[in-house]
Every structure is written in C-alpha cells, then in structure tokens.
Amino acid sequence: MRSKKDITNWGKYPVAEANEFVFDSETNLKKIIESSPSSPFIARGAGRCYGDASLGENIVSTLHYTNILEFDPVRGEIFCEAGVTLEELIEVILPKGYFLPVTPGTKFITVGGAVASDIHGKNHHKEGSFSAHIIYMEIYAADGKIYRASRTENVDLFEATCGGMGLTGIILRVKFGLKKVESAYIKQITARARNLDEIFDLFEEHRSCTYSMSWIDCFQKGSKLGRSIMYAGEHATLEDLDTKKKKNPLYVPAKRKLTVPFNLPSITLNPLSIRAFNFLYYNKSPKNRHVGLVDYDTFFYPLDAILHWNRMYGKSGFVQYQFVLPLDVSKKGLTEILTRINKRNMGSFLAVLKLFGKQDDLISFPMEGYTLALDFAVRKGLFEFLDELDKVVMDLGGRIYLSKDARMKSDFFWKSYPKINQFAETIRKYNPSSTFASEQSARLQLTNHYHKK
Amino acid sequence: MKCVLILGASSDIAKAAARQYARKGATIFLAGRNEEALTGFSKDLSIRHNVIAKFVRFDADDVKSHASFYKGISPVPDVVICAFGYLGDQAVAQNNWDECNRIIQANYTGAVSILNLVANDMETRKSGVIIGVSSVAGDRGRQSNYIYGSAKAGFTSYLSGLRNRLFKSGVHVVTVKPGFVDTKMTNGLKLPAPLTAQPDQVASKMINAADKKKNEIYVLWMWRWVMLIIKSVPEGVFKKLKL
C-alpha cells in the first residue's frame, strides 16, 4: 500500500528514499510515531533547508498542520502550528500593520523550520535570529508528551530546539512577537563596493540600519577581490510614501512569477555564464549611492519571484556553503577563501555576504562576524574542495550553517560548535533512543541511526 | 452572508472548500469527529478570513444523533457539503463484516440519514444547495473496490433522486465525482499525475457547480472520458478484466 518516495530538499542533494507521513492533530502524530518504535522520524516542513537536515527514512511532514491559532493585533503576537509558512503569515499580519520579526531570503519556509534552523535575516546585527522573538513553543518529545518551552520554562529544551534541526522532537506550535510597520515598503540604500575593504566599511557604516546584506562577485581578484553591492534598508514610514502608495500603504499589488519549468542541463551555470551575469549585475546597479523605495517582496524575497530556481543547477543539484567567521578574522578569512575559489575557478552564482551581530545561544549558527553563503553545483572534486574550505573556517574559529549543510564531516562539526556537548546532552535527555534522527544527525554523529553505506 | 455547513470537515477537500467559502465571507460550520483538528481549523478560518467559523461535533455513523445535531445549527445553512466518507480496505471488508459495514455506513447510510433531514428542511424553506462528494468508483463496480464503489453508487443514485425531488422547491443538488485527489488519505500512494486533482481544484469546481447549478461534475475532464469507456465495456468482457 504505502510506497516510499524520493525526497530532496532545496539543493536537490542528497536524495532520500523515504516514507512520508502527515498529521493534522496531536492524536494523529502520536499514532504515527508510536506505529514504528524502532525506526527514527524526522520532521520536515517546506523542504527549504538545502541538504539532508530533514531527510531520513521516515519523514513527518508538517504541511497538513497549518492552523493559525491566535493573532493579537494589539500586542502584536501570533500563535500558530508548525506547518504555517511565512508567506501565509505575511498575508494575515501585513494588512494589520505587522511584519515578521526575522525573515530569511525566502518566505516559502514554515514556522517549524524557522525555529529548527533558528533562521536569521538581514537584520541579525540589530534584532537577532528568530529565536530571540519566540515567546514560547510546544514540542512533542520522544516520550509522547508535549512540552511547553521558553526562556523560562523547560529552558534546556527551548535552547536545544532553537537551531536544533528537529532533534529534540516535533515542534508543534510556536508563539512569537511581530514587528509593527507602517507600510509594506522598504526604504532601500544601494551602494557599490569595489573590494573587500570597501564593503567592510559599508557594513560598519550601516550598522545602525535595520537591514543590510550584500551580493558579492566571487570572480574578482587582486584589488577588485570582494567587489560587491550592498543593500541596506528600513521599513518605510507613511511619510516616505508618495500619495498613491499612501492610500493603501500595507498592500502591494501581486506580481507575475517566473518559473524554471524543469532541471536545466548542468552546463547552464558555468564560469563564463556566471561571470557574464556578475558583470551585468554589478554594472546595472547605480554607480553612486542610491536611495529608493521597494516593496517588501522585492527587498526580502527577490529569488521567490523565480519559482524552482534550484533547477538551474541541473539534476545533480547543488550545495550551499554558508560559513561565519569571528569578526576579527573575517577579512583575513574571506580573502583567503575568495582567493581559493578563484584559483579553482569555483565561482558561485549567488554569493551573499552579511555582518552578524552578537549571539551566544546553544546551537544557533550566528556569531558576531561575517557570514558568506555560496552556491556550488554538485560535481566531481567539489566535496574535496569544500573540505579544504572547512579547514580554513575551522582554523579561524568559524562554523557552518546546519540548514545549508549536506556534507560536513562530523569532527569539524564537533570542533566548531563550542556548546556541542551540552546540546548533545539535551538531545539524549529528550530523545534518548534516537526516535528523532535525520541523515544529517547520523552523519554528524548526533544520533546513532543511518550509518552511511 | 451565506452560511455553509460542512459534514466531514477534516478531509482535505472539505478544508479547501471551507477556505474558499470563508474567503467569500461565508459563516462556516465545521462538522466532524476530529475535535482537535477542527477546533484549530475554525480558529484559523476566523483569523485568516475574518469570518465566523465554528466546530460542531458530528458522527456520521451515529444516525440517532443526526436530528439533534442538525437542529443545533443556527443560522440554518444555505449550503450543505456532505464530504465524509471512508475508503476502507476491500480485501479486509470481503471477510470482515465490521469493516464492510463501516464502509457502507460512512459512505451511504450515514449520508442518507443526515441529508434526509437537510433535504426536508430546505424543501420547506424553498432554498438551499446540497453538495454531495461521491466518487468515480460508484460508476461501475470493480473487483478492487466494489464495496466502497457500491456504497458510493448508492449515494450517487440517492443524490440524483434528491435532485429530482427538490427541483420544484428551488433546492439544488450537486454530485461531485473527484477521481484521484492528492490528499492525506492518498499520501504515499502512487497516483497517475494527469488524473490526480488537488483539493483546491475539487473545491473550486464544486463551488462553481453550486453557483451555476450544475448537476453532476467530474473534476478533471479526462475522468468523464475514462469513466465513459469503463462504463461502456460490455459486462461479458468487463468481468474478465483485472480492474
């Protein structure tokens, strides 16, 4: 009757042959988990992590667990089930004058995923990651009980669940605070940086700006190494809007979406085409610093306008390599890594640089310093190359984002996350027999299932 | 504004229909057994669409409770969607009367019991729409699921008789035959993509049918032809097929 299907996350690598289960109530979830006491489960939302974090033999999809349970427009708080997507939330909260406290570069993720990855956005340096805004959450743990966890209640569970990749149990419901906004628009500053020194200066200069990130051209070398464009922004107030927009400040007319209808041949993105793209992209940006008004979709989610953009990398998929380096060694490390990428002609089509603020949570990815995210098509030699980069990152005291990871070696992981022992201990407490485990958790030796053949 | 009563509201088709009616501002009664899921869903509808949405306990098998259940629905519904059903397991049902009876109850007896009450009420009011979610499986009995199929065949016949009776009172009856639908119920089954509809598609087709007073609809046009062929195979040949 039930047949396994091939499931992949956003990077299309790796592919897992999995049973997929859905639930719409706690009762149903309990039945599913108890039906198979020996084999582990892992929760999965919209499948927008890149690698194997939500892959395993038995996947519990939250996509039928999608109710918004409370919305308090006075206090600006929302309480919802884990499968609700950020896109759906925006539809509800924006017309009432609220926006998400933290959002990644796509709105097609679920709230459960946002917690499990402890996502960050362009405002991390000012407002922290998603977990900073959680009031409380409810988690189904391996003992079949539901725990309420917050920064004051079941604190260990709360800390290990934020960024914990679903290893403490199934995140059921989350209550979190929203951000009051006057409009659906962002006042955006665009500025060019000719090299790494300039972009670092721009980030420092815009530290007080709520949002900032930059796109970086990995193919530039020498004095142009780190050539990039910075985008900074603030939520536009009513005064920032023209009369036409003022009439309906919280509404953005729907735009047409493009789609990549099928996997493109893997040759599509080659050093030449990426160079050409980067050249055009940089040169079409305003030469001088420019301030303009853009809608929230354009500012936060430019890639959401192209559905299935992951198909550009072809059938074998891609890996996103996102690392962070401590602030004092960021420039040194980035120079080294960008130089290595250049030498190997490994240039990434999308490369995003961002300055994080301080964060000192248990297993969350961000720390004060620069983070760079690079996309590489899966091909021969890539993993060896990434192992080399891991070494550079490790020597400088940096680490890799688990949501993007599909290949990191476990000893690097254990060395690079300073509170890993405490995290592993909490997992053992709430998930003692690996009822919840993923291919990633097995690869990283956090749980004891799925020994890779 | 319209008031819509959905019987068996936790199915994916029912939920999609509830969302679409809520988007139009209708008051929604979600009737079913899964209190936890439906209470949550009623909150969700109220928050997302700014409408009144309520959970009402309803058990299709418990026919004795139907009269008092229906009396409790206020305001009276303009649209009633009968969306509950139970696919069951044909192989088990052949040997086990409880499973067999459960299939018949959930797909036929229970539906007839509650819709009798709805029909009488709408007939007196001289207005209303009844939407029955039947199945292509009721078009012809096949060895792989004829117990479910025969219950749905009975339901389809019931709906056509009801349509005939209520026509003169201005009450309209829609029969929906969805075919394969990508739902919780079919998750994990390999379904042929061109013949498989999304719950949202089923919901918008059936709401459209209710608005336009269509009588019997298939959701995907292919199904009309597929079933036409299946229905026109002579019985002498049909009985030898593995279907």
Order of helices and strands of chain B: EHEHEHEHHEHEEEHEHH
Helix content of chain A: 25-40%
Helix-strand makeup class of chain B: alpha/beta
Mean pLDDT of chain B: 95
Q: What's the arrangement of strands in the largest beta sheet of chain A?
A: 16-12-14-13-19-20-18-21
Kindly report the average pLDDT value of chain A. Answer: 94
Q: Compute the number of strand runs of chain A.
A: 21
The largest interface is: A-B, 24 and 16 residues
CATH class of chain B, anyone? Alpha Beta
Just name the CATH architecture of chain B: 3-Layer(aba) Sandwich
User: What is the fold named in CATH at topology level of chain B?
Assistant: Rossmann fold
Shape of chain A: globular
Strand content of chain A: 15-25%
Assess the beta-strand content of chain B as a share of residues: 15-25%
Beta strands of chain B, count: 9
* CATH fold assignment of the domain at 185-407 in chain A: Vanillyl-alcohol Oxidase, Chain A, domain 3
- Number of separate structural domains of chain B: 1
Q: Kindly, what is the distance between the CA atoms of the first and last residues of chain A, rounded to a whole number of angstroms?
A: 27 Å
Family (chain B): Belongs to the short-chain dehydrogenases/reductases (SDR) family.
GO molecular function (chain B): oxidoreductase activity
Protein name (chain B): Short-chain dehydrogenase
Organism (chain B): Pseudochryseolinea flava
